[in-house]
Amino acid sequence: MKHRYWIFDMDGTLTDSMPIWAQVPYELVRSFGKVPAEDLGRVLLPMSALETAQYLITTYDLPLTIDSYTQAAMDAVDRLYRTVSLKPGVEQTLARLDEAGAKMCVCSATWQFMCQRVLGRLGVLDRFQFVLSAQEGRTKHQPDIFFEALGRMGGADPAQCMVCEDALYAARTARQAGFDVIGIADAASRPDEAALRALSCQYLTQWDQLDWAEV
Q: How many angstroms separate the CA atoms of 92 and 89, rounded?
Protein backbone atom coordinates (compact mmCIF):
# COMPACT_ATOMS: atom_id res chain seq x y z
CA MET A 1 0.00 0.00 0.00
CA LYS A 2 1.10 3.54 -0.73
CA HIS A 3 -0.54 4.76 2.47
CA ARG A 4 1.05 3.23 5.57
CA TYR A 5 -0.75 5.59 7.92
CA TRP A 6 -4.50 6.13 8.30
CA ILE A 7 -6.34 8.81 10.26
CA PHE A 8 -10.07 8.26 10.78
CA ASP A 9 -12.72 10.67 11.95
CA MET A 10 -15.37 8.94 14.07
CA ASP A 11 -18.81 10.60 13.83
CA GLY A 12 -20.20 10.21 10.32
CA THR A 13 -17.09 8.35 9.14
CA LEU A 14 -16.71 5.23 11.28
CA THR A 15 -20.08 5.50 13.04
CA ASP A 16 -23.59 6.54 12.06
CA SER A 17 -23.66 8.97 14.98
CA MET A 18 -24.05 12.45 13.49
CA PRO A 19 -27.83 12.58 14.16
CA ILE A 20 -27.37 12.22 17.91
CA TRP A 21 -26.01 15.75 18.28
CA ALA A 22 -29.32 17.30 17.26
CA GLN A 23 -31.03 15.09 19.86
CA VAL A 24 -28.86 16.09 22.83
CA PRO A 25 -31.02 18.99 24.12
CA TYR A 26 -34.17 16.88 23.77
CA GLU A 27 -32.57 13.99 25.65
CA LEU A 28 -31.28 16.32 28.36
CA VAL A 29 -34.67 17.94 28.94
CA ARG A 30 -36.45 14.56 29.01
CA SER A 31 -33.94 13.20 31.52
CA PHE A 32 -35.37 15.64 34.08
CA GLY A 33 -38.96 14.58 33.40
CA LYS A 34 -39.77 17.58 31.22
CA VAL A 35 -41.31 17.64 27.75
CA PRO A 36 -39.20 19.49 25.15
CA ALA A 37 -40.95 21.59 22.51
CA GLU A 38 -40.98 19.97 19.08
CA ASP A 39 -39.18 22.96 17.58
CA LEU A 40 -36.52 23.14 20.30
CA GLY A 41 -33.74 22.45 17.82
CA ARG A 42 -34.80 25.35 15.61
CA VAL A 43 -34.96 27.68 18.62
CA LEU A 44 -31.48 26.70 19.79
CA LEU A 45 -29.85 26.79 16.35
CA PRO A 46 -28.58 30.42 16.49
CA MET A 47 -27.52 30.22 20.16
CA SER A 48 -24.02 29.78 21.55
CA ALA A 49 -23.27 26.93 23.96
CA LEU A 50 -23.66 29.27 26.94
CA GLU A 51 -26.90 30.71 25.62
CA THR A 52 -28.23 27.19 25.03
CA ALA A 53 -27.44 26.21 28.61
CA GLN A 54 -29.09 29.34 30.00
CA TYR A 55 -32.17 28.89 27.81
CA LEU A 56 -32.72 25.23 28.72
CA ILE A 57 -32.15 25.78 32.44
CA THR A 58 -34.55 28.74 32.55
CA THR A 59 -37.23 27.60 30.10
CA TYR A 60 -37.56 24.07 31.50
CA ASP A 61 -36.73 24.93 35.12
CA LEU A 62 -33.92 22.39 35.19
CA PRO A 63 -32.19 21.79 38.55
CA LEU A 64 -28.82 22.75 37.06
CA THR A 65 -26.25 25.51 37.24
CA ILE A 66 -24.20 26.57 34.26
CA ASP A 67 -21.32 24.49 35.66
CA SER A 68 -23.38 21.34 36.22
CA TYR A 69 -25.08 21.70 32.83
CA THR A 70 -21.92 20.52 31.03
CA GLN A 71 -21.92 17.19 32.86
CA ALA A 72 -25.66 16.74 32.27
CA ALA A 73 -25.17 17.37 28.55
CA MET A 74 -22.26 14.93 28.46
CA ASP A 75 -24.40 12.30 30.16
CA ALA A 76 -27.08 12.84 27.51
CA VAL A 77 -24.50 12.38 24.76
CA ASP A 78 -23.28 9.19 26.42
CA ARG A 79 -26.79 7.72 26.51
CA LEU A 80 -27.40 8.60 22.87
CA TYR A 81 -24.07 7.11 21.80
CA ARG A 82 -25.26 3.73 23.10
CA THR A 83 -27.69 3.63 20.17
CA VAL A 84 -25.13 4.10 17.37
CA SER A 85 -23.51 1.48 15.14
CA LEU A 86 -20.49 1.18 12.89
CA LYS A 87 -21.14 2.16 9.31
CA PRO A 88 -21.44 -0.83 6.95
CA GLY A 89 -18.07 -2.26 5.98
CA VAL A 90 -16.04 -0.48 8.66
CA GLU A 91 -15.13 -3.58 10.64
CA GLN A 92 -13.97 -5.46 7.54
CA THR A 93 -12.00 -2.46 6.26
CA LEU A 94 -10.16 -1.98 9.55
CA ALA A 95 -9.37 -5.71 9.73
CA ARG A 96 -7.91 -5.71 6.23
CA LEU A 97 -5.82 -2.60 6.91
CA ASP A 98 -4.57 -4.16 10.12
CA GLU A 99 -3.60 -7.36 8.31
CA ALA A 100 -1.72 -5.26 5.72
CA GLY A 101 0.33 -3.62 8.47
CA ALA A 102 -1.24 -0.16 8.29
CA LYS A 103 -0.96 2.06 11.34
CA MET A 104 -4.27 3.65 12.28
CA CYS A 105 -5.61 6.25 14.69
CA VAL A 106 -8.79 8.20 15.32
CA CYS A 107 -8.88 11.99 15.20
CA SER A 108 -12.26 13.31 16.30
CA ALA A 109 -13.85 16.52 17.56
CA THR A 110 -15.61 14.38 20.17
CA TRP A 111 -14.09 13.90 23.62
CA GLN A 112 -11.33 11.30 23.67
CA PHE A 113 -12.85 9.22 26.46
CA MET A 114 -16.22 9.18 24.67
CA CYS A 115 -14.64 7.96 21.41
CA GLN A 116 -12.83 5.24 23.31
CA ARG A 117 -16.04 4.20 25.04
CA VAL A 118 -18.02 4.09 21.78
CA LEU A 119 -15.37 2.30 19.74
CA GLY A 120 -14.70 -0.11 22.58
CA ARG A 121 -18.37 -1.03 22.79
CA LEU A 122 -18.42 -1.56 19.03
CA GLY A 123 -15.38 -3.84 19.21
CA VAL A 124 -12.88 -1.89 17.09
CA LEU A 125 -10.94 0.25 19.56
CA ASP A 126 -7.98 -2.14 19.55
CA ARG A 127 -7.50 -1.54 15.82
CA PHE A 128 -6.23 1.97 16.57
CA GLN A 129 -2.94 3.06 18.12
CA PHE A 130 -4.62 5.98 19.88
CA VAL A 131 -7.53 8.42 19.83
CA LEU A 132 -6.76 12.12 19.42
CA SER A 133 -9.39 14.72 20.31
CA ALA A 134 -9.66 18.02 18.41
CA GLN A 135 -10.50 20.02 21.51
CA GLU A 136 -8.80 22.32 24.00
CA GLY A 137 -7.05 24.45 21.40
CA ARG A 138 -6.86 21.73 18.75
CA THR A 139 -9.07 22.08 15.71
CA LYS A 140 -9.41 20.44 12.31
CA HIS A 141 -9.56 23.90 10.79
CA GLN A 142 -5.75 23.84 11.10
CA PRO A 143 -3.46 21.00 9.90
CA ASP A 144 -1.43 20.75 13.12
CA ILE A 145 -3.62 18.02 14.57
CA PHE A 146 -3.22 15.85 11.46
CA PHE A 147 0.56 16.23 11.59
CA GLU A 148 0.49 15.43 15.31
CA ALA A 149 -1.48 12.25 14.58
CA LEU A 150 0.89 11.27 11.77
CA GLY A 151 3.95 11.86 13.95
CA ARG A 152 2.55 9.82 16.82
CA MET A 153 2.05 6.91 14.42
CA GLY A 154 5.70 7.17 13.40
CA GLY A 155 5.23 8.93 10.07
CA ALA A 156 6.46 12.22 8.67
CA ASP A 157 5.35 12.43 5.03
CA PRO A 158 1.66 13.37 4.64
CA ALA A 159 1.67 11.77 1.17
CA GLN A 160 1.94 8.40 2.94
CA CYS A 161 -1.10 9.11 5.09
CA MET A 162 -4.79 8.77 4.26
CA VAL A 163 -7.30 10.93 6.13
CA CYS A 164 -10.86 9.60 6.15
CA GLU A 165 -13.49 12.28 6.72
CA ASP A 166 -17.16 13.09 6.18
CA ALA A 167 -16.73 16.78 7.04
CA LEU A 168 -15.71 19.04 4.17
CA TYR A 169 -13.83 21.58 6.27
CA ALA A 170 -11.64 18.90 7.88
CA ALA A 171 -11.05 17.10 4.58
CA ARG A 172 -10.06 20.39 2.96
CA THR A 173 -7.61 21.18 5.77
CA ALA A 174 -5.95 17.79 5.39
CA ARG A 175 -5.82 17.93 1.59
CA GLN A 176 -4.29 21.40 1.53
CA ALA A 177 -1.60 20.15 3.93
CA GLY A 178 -0.58 17.36 1.55
CA PHE A 179 -2.55 14.44 2.97
CA ASP A 180 -4.62 12.21 0.72
CA VAL A 181 -8.31 12.08 1.59
CA ILE A 182 -11.10 9.54 1.39
CA GLY A 183 -14.45 11.28 1.58
CA ILE A 184 -17.25 9.44 3.35
CA ALA A 185 -20.90 10.07 2.52
CA ASP A 186 -23.17 11.00 5.41
CA ALA A 187 -26.63 12.53 5.53
CA ALA A 188 -25.37 15.40 7.67
CA SER A 189 -22.79 16.44 5.05
CA ARG A 190 -24.90 15.80 1.95
CA PRO A 191 -24.98 19.51 0.96
CA ASP A 192 -21.16 19.40 0.69
CA GLU A 193 -21.02 16.19 -1.35
CA ALA A 194 -19.87 17.74 -4.62
CA ALA A 195 -17.03 19.68 -2.97
CA LEU A 196 -15.97 16.67 -0.88
CA ARG A 197 -15.93 14.45 -3.97
CA ALA A 198 -13.75 16.97 -5.80
CA LEU A 199 -10.93 16.92 -3.25
CA SER A 200 -11.06 13.21 -2.37
CA CYS A 201 -9.01 10.38 -3.85
CA GLN A 202 -12.11 8.25 -3.37
CA TYR A 203 -15.62 9.13 -2.25
CA LEU A 204 -17.47 6.27 -0.58
CA THR A 205 -21.16 5.92 0.12
CA GLN A 206 -20.28 2.65 1.87
CA TRP A 207 -16.95 1.34 3.09
CA ASP A 208 -17.19 -1.82 1.00
CA GLN A 209 -16.77 0.40 -2.09
CA LEU A 210 -13.12 1.12 -1.20
CA ASP A 211 -10.83 0.52 -4.16
CA TRP A 212 -7.89 -1.28 -2.58
CA ALA A 213 -5.78 -0.87 -5.70
CA GLU A 214 -5.77 2.88 -5.06
CA VAL A 215 -4.67 2.89 -1.42
A: 5
- Nearest-angstrom CA–CA distance, 154 and 206: 29
Contacts of 68 (CB under 8 A, 6+ apart): none
Give the tens place of pLDDT for each residue, 2-54: 999 999 999 999 999 999 999 999 999 999 999 999 999 999 989 988 999 99
Question: Rounded CA gap, 207 and 215, in Å?
Answer: 13
Considering the entire predicted model, what is its pTM? Answer: 0.93
Any residues with CB less than 8 A from the CB of 157 and at least 6 apart, and which? none
The count of other CB atoms within 10 Å of the CB of residue 77 is 20
Which residues are within 8 A (CB) of 166 and not within 5 positions of it... i.e. 6 or more apart? 9, 11, 12, 13, 18, 183, 184, 185, 186, 188, 189, 196
